Predict the structure of L-aspartate dehydrogenase.
Amino acid sequence: MKIGLVGCGAIGREVALAVDRDIPQLELSIIYDVEKAKIDFLLKSLVKKPKVASGIEEVMREADLVVEAASPKIVGELLTLASKEEKDLLIMSIGGVLDHLELLESIKREGKCKVFFPSGAIAGLDGINAAREKNIKSISITTSKPPQALLNAPYVIQNKIDLKNIKKPTLIFEGNCKQAVKAFPRNINVSATLSLAGIGMEKTNVKIIADPGITKNQHKIEIKGDFGEMEVVVRNVPSLTNPKTSYLAALSAVATLRKIVSPVKIGT
Ligand SMILES: NC(=O)c1ccc[n+]([C@@H]2O[C@H](COP(=O)([O-])OP(=O)(O)OC[C@H]3O[C@@H](n4cnc5c(N)ncnc54)[C@H](O)[C@@H]3O)[C@@H](O)[C@H]2O)c1
């Protein structure tokens, strides 16, 4: 299967190296990035050199499956192209889907392509997928971050929250996912993934805690439903090449590709 890569940053690089060296059923056939330096840096590390595209349309034409690891801004265009060209798509900038939910619905109806959303920086989507077969009563996510990681969030600025003087874990926001993505856009991928997998933006509860005692971002997901109750906690190590990205997110992209081609699939 020919893989096309859009975005050669932290996640794209991890995906490219895994496909190049470690997933023999896949071939990295074409790559693209708006920054030429990122392409050149990646090419140096690859054993088999892929073609370099001049834009995302060329990636879509050449590849069987396109991996997006670039920006939420191009997600709408990629969904449209994938449906038109009948090519599969793996999306990492999942927050970018929220403005194009109608496109996703038409892809579901028409069934001309497949779209994969890896679990990214969170865990527990396997359990949510199973739980969704019957009634889910509630889903909530509590994200704890070191105060400095929340400094530039619109909600913090608007509400003049003095993060520098927070001395103990402090709840600074509670609302639904729809409100949370506006208030804390850097949490958007996590919120979007959880909402798409579960019961939607309006019904998913989000709490944000500023915690001066932690160094790693932490997500605690709690679900209640006909199945019982589930709690999942993830404490994420940042990626070496992009500290804003959790290493687990890059690994989840690689694991999703591996699962697509594996004859044996474990977990829902
Ligand atoms: N799903 C999740 O849980 C999760 C977690 C972390 C990051 N992400 C998202 O995944 C994406 C990639 O993350 P990353 O850490 O690799 O980022 P990064 O900044 O390290 O790399 C992104 C790369 O994409 C390139 N790029 C930007 N706009 C582009 C465009 N229009 N066309 C082609 N290339 C473009 C940049 O030049 C850069 O090289 C981001 O949108 C990020 O928000 C998702």
The first strand starts at residue 2 and ends at 6. The domain at 125-237 is CATH 3.30.360.10 (Dihydrodipicolinate Reductase; domain 2).
